[in-house]
Amino acid sequence: MSVSPATLPPVLLHPEAELARAALATPLLSRAVRLARWAGPETRVGAGGELVDAQLPAAAAELGLAADDPDAAAYASEAWRVAVDTGLVEVTDAEEEGGEGTVTQGEDLALLSEGGPQDVLGIWLGALDTVYADATVPDMEDLLDVLEENGEVDFADLGWDPQAEADFLDGVLGNLYLLTVGDAAAGEGPVPLPALAASMIVPDDMAEPTDDILEQVSDAMMKLDDQFRLFEPLGLVEYRPVDEALMADVDDDGAEEPAPVDDEDVSRYGMVRLTPLGLYGVRARMLEAGVDAPAVGDLADKGADALLDGTSGFPQAAAQAEIEQWLAHHEPLGAARELLAAARGGDEGAPLRRLRCQQALSLVGDEAEPALRDVLDDPELGGLARVWLAEHGAADVPAPSEALVFWLTIDTIAAQLAAEGNSDELQGLVEGLAQQHSGFFATAWRVEHPATADVLEAMGRLHPDKKVAKEARKAAFKARSQQGL
Predict the structure, then answer these.
(1) 3-state DSSP: the chain helix, strand, coil percent, rounded to 5?
(2) Which of 159, 164, 348, 473 is a Cys-bridge partner for 460, taking CB atoms 3.0 to 4.6 Å apart?
(3) pLDDT recorded at residue 139
(4) Nearest to 182 by CA among 199, 206, 163
(5) How far out from the chain centre does Cα 391 lie?
(6) Structure confidence at residue 249 (pLDDT)
(7) Beta-strand runs (E) in 95-224
């Protein structure tokens, strides 16, 4: 599965027990389970393990599907295929060519009631593989159109590339995964199908899509509409399909061009979101493909150095959740000592490590006070130690020197730059500093911190007042000269 970022944002997965219950409740897997329990010596299957046509009405009836439902046989056939592929039933081939095979309940069927959540989720992932394969094959009508006299399909004539189809679907689900885990706010709502299709088709540097590109997006939408309809019964996605009236307009060559659709009607073109179970499933496929797809909790049993380095690139909410899980595995005083030791350093990533250390220490109780007092004289940690002690109402906290205040200020801004870039919050901090301290830049360039020049340069870039911005740039130049850069 190909996803562009080298490391994806961490995903906050639901507990496995909850996901397992959701998997068992999905329409497709629950149907497969019912058919597996229904199957027996009298069940008739063909050479490929499929139910023979004469058996489909009984299977559909077992699923509670109406006899006059035109889709009943298809639902029964699909559920049976999942049961076979996931090991819920075992098929023994016929002894004679052209004969019918026999069926017994598979060993994995018992795991659904006697096994643990991971057993259930493993079976659900097997069902996902089956549906995934179905979603990447051509439509049956298209296959029949290019069926050759010898019964083989001319895939070249069909224009079907199995690897390209799989890569496209991988990319779509990868983008949907990114939209879900990359930003907590974005992950709250469904994604419009046109936007998802466009993310795969429209080049990043194309300001205005051409007619050809728009046609490709439209074709991709129709393909995705079919695919998400397959995935929804397995619980991978919540999906609102494309409005049938819109597809009728596309199919009707004589129809007038439809009126433009406003934002309120964009849902008519399809809306999709990954479910919590879907996040688990897509991540499992990514991991199997060798993609680095971290989950919150992966660092809970690691050292503080791994925690601070690992969460350095996490969004704020994910970092908070990861730190909380790590702290739950450590006693407060020992955790504080380990975090402070890991926060030291003059490398480029050190300011952000110290910011994550502060974030973690804010969740630790008063039991950690001795660890903070131990580093009051530390040039890198003394500032954050004083902040923590003051916030916890500790007595006899020595006042910081001016040099320590300026060092901590540079360190904090460097961390904010690394975490969020040129954010509005950082711009507000920069404006406040320049306003409160009229001689800030005259002193700041002398601060012996590896990031001093970069911070001052960023302040010059961020401050809206041209005079103040010029002072910041001059100070940055002095800092670089002092550092010999």
Answers:
(1) 60, 5, 35
(2) 473
(3) 62
(4) 199
(5) 35
(6) 56
(7) 102-105, 191-192
Residue 342: per-residue pLDDT: 97
For residues 188-206, one letter each, b for 16 or more C-beta atoms within 10 angstroms of the residue's C-beta and e for the rest, the string is eebbbbbebbbbbbbeeee
Q: How far is CA 10 from the centre of its chain?
A: 7
The answer to whether residues 109 and 88 touch, using CB atoms and an 8 Å cutoff, is yes
Angle between helices 16-25 and 276-288 (to 10 degrees): 110
Q: Distance of CA 293 to CAs 123, 276, 392, Å?
A: 21, 15, 37
pLDDT for res 341? 97
- Sign of the alpha-carbon torsion through 442, 446, 452, 453: positive
Closest by CA to 234, choosing from 83, 136, 124, is 124
What is the chain's length? 485
Q: What are phi and psi of 235, to 5 degrees?
A: 80, 10
Cβ neighbours of 236 (radius 10 Å): 28
At residue 274, φ and ψ (nearest 5 deg) are -75, 135
In angstroms, how far is CA 399 from the centroid of its own chain?
A: 45
Instruction: Supply angle C-alpha 365, 310, 382, rounded to 5.
Output: 45
Q: 3-class DSSP state for residue 7?
A: strand
Averages of pLDDT over runs of 10 residues in the chain (485 residues) are: 62 95 97 95 87 93 93 95 96 73 91 95 98 83 52 60 89 93 62 92 84 90 94 97 72 47 70 96 95 92 95 85 94 97 95 95 95 96 96 94 94 90 81 81 93 93 89 93 77
Specify the pLDDT at position 184: 46
Lookup: tokens for 182:
């990359």
**Cβ-contact 321, 310 below 8 angstroms:** no
Sheet holding 237-240, edge to edge: 191-192, 271-274, 237-240
CB-based contact 280:122 (threshold 8 Å):
no
| Residue pair 238/275 in contact by the 8 Å Cβ criterion | yes
Tell me how far apart the alpha carbons of residues 165 and 184 are, in angstroms, rounded to a whole number. 30
Closest CA to 184 of 4, 315, 276: 315
* Cβ-defined contacts of 55-63 (< 8 Å, 24+): 59/35, 62/34, 62/35, 62/38, 63/31, 63/34, 63/35
By the 10 Å C-beta count (0-12 exposed, 13-18 middle, 19+ buried), 41 is classed as exposed
- Rounded to whole angstroms, how far apart are CA atoms 482 and 478? 6
Q: For 158, how many CA atoms within 13 A lie in the half-sphere containing its CB?
A: 20
* Runs of H (alpha helix) within 311-347: 316-327, 332-343
